[in-house]
Task: inverse folding
């Protein structure tokens, strides 16, 4: 049986050793979600995901025909910036959509694994991608109505 100091050390070791893995899992989930979007909604939007460097990913979304309920029938362009900061404690992923407020996801660890969390709850990489992309893909930008 381990004591709290050993458990704390294990958490810190997992975080140091595997935070970048959690970031890579997030990247894969974003890329997979965008590929699924292109497959199931091919006429709704063009989605291009571009790695900027090892710590940043940009998703450019151009809604070709505004979905029902949008105030403008014109093309709507969205930009999602996803950045990984591993120099800070704890490491985090910051998401911004257009010029909106940033949403921060922490990368945390327990004694067994490293994971992404949002609002103090563990989220899977797939859930991270949903929280990151669902609004820009399916909701009208603020201030466009």
Result:
């Amino acid at each position: 049986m381990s004591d709290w100091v050993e458990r704390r050390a294990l958490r810190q070791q997992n975080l140091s050793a595997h935070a970048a893995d959690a970031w890579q899992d997030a990247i894969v989930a974003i890329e997979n979600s965008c590929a699924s979007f292109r497959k199931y909604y091919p006429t709704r939007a063009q989605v291009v995901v571009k790695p900027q460097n090892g710590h940043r990913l940009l998703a450019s979304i151009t809604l070709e025909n505004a979905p029902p309920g949008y105030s403008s029938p014109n093309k709507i362009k969205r930009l999602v910036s996803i950045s990984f900061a591993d120099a800070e404690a704890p490491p985090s992923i910051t998401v911004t959509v257009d010029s909106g407020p940033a949403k921060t996801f922490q990368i945390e660890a327990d004694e067994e694994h490293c994971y992404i969390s949002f609002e103090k709850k563990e989220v899977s990489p797939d859930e991270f991608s949903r929280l990151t992309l669902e609004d820009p893909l399916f909701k009208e930008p603020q201030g466009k109505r």
Q: What stands out?
A: The chain has one domain: 4-138. The first strand starts at residue 45 and ends at 53. The mean pLDDT is 90. The two ends are 59 Å apart (CA to CA).
